[in-house]
Amino acid sequence: GESVGLHLPTLSVQEGDNSIINCAYSNSASDYFIWYKQESGKGPQFIIDIRSNMDKRQGQRVTVLLNKTVKHLSLQIAATQPGDSAVYFCAENSGGSNYKLTFGKGTLLTVNP
Amino acid sequence: EAGVVQSPRYKIIEKKQPVAFWCNPISGHNTLYWYLQNLGQGPELLIRYENEEAVDDSQLPKDRFSAERLKGVDSTLKIQPAELGDSAVYLCASSLGGSETQYFGPGTRLLVL
After folding, report:
1. What is the largest CA-CA distance in chain A?
2. Using CB atoms, which residue from B40, B56, B98 is nearest to A8?
3. Helix ranges, chain A (H)
4. Best residue in A51, A103, A105 to probe B by mutation, most B CBs within 10 Å?
5. Which of A5, A34, A101 sits opposite B45 (nearest CB)?
6. Given CA atoms B53, B39, B15, B11 in this order, what sign does their dihedral have?
7. How many CB pairs under 8 A join A and B?
8. Is A1 in Cβ contact with B44 (below 8 Å)?
9. Which residues of B touch A43 (CB under 8 A)?
10. Which of A45, A69, A97, B79 lies 20 to 30 Å from B23, alpha-carbon distance?
């Protein structure tokens, strides 16, 4: 896999703004995608998922968009709050029926009050 | 409902020493996963259990790593002997079934000196 080291992509937004976090996935055969939020010192927390037969799914303040043509996934957070500050990971099921998650690079979201 | 429980939360050992991590999944979850997370990167799967059977251990370095889930509930991951490069966070996750959402524990932070 790719080496990220200590340098994470970062996104800094003002409280109340909308945030968009992007992810490029690797396997065109992947059929299931998930966004996780990871706060410092904690394990990843499930946010929202989407299957490949959909191109959009909405949750509470979050929307995931899937573009299979360019293998791109995005997470939109509406009215971003300081509590949204965390590292966000996308993950794809690259194992087919064996269901194996492959995580992408994380993005560090910082929300300024 | 209690989430995934892991212990210890932190462990510092000298190289060549053995170390073990314990995980208690969410009640009723048949599938259990162990992941390795290096600093600044996404989790990487080490092993996946369906009940007490290891169904995917292809990424587990079997020369020094071992895992067990004897009664299909709790699981233990062991490293013997530990090397400096094993310093990382070891995450446990569980799901109802192999194709269901994975829920992560807080992780065990290992530092090998």
Report:
1. 44
2. B40
3. none
4. A103
5. A101
6. negative
7. 57
8. yes
9. 4, 91, 93, 104-107
10. A97
User: pLDDT tens digits, residue range B34-89?
Assistant: 999 998 899 999 999 999 999 999 999 999 999 999 888 999 999 999 999 999 99
Give pLDDT tens digits for A58-83.
Answer: 999 999 999 999 999 999 999 999 99
Task: Read off the tokens for B92.
Answer: 């446990």
Distance CA B88, CA A113 (A): 32
Return the structure tokens found at A98: 């064996």
Torsion angle (degrees, nearest 10) of CA B85, B53, B74, B37: 30
> How sure is the predictor about A3, in pLDDT bands with cuts at 50, 70 and 90?
very low
Q: Which of A4, A91, A100 sits opposite B41 (nearest CB)?
A: A4
pLDDT at A7: 67
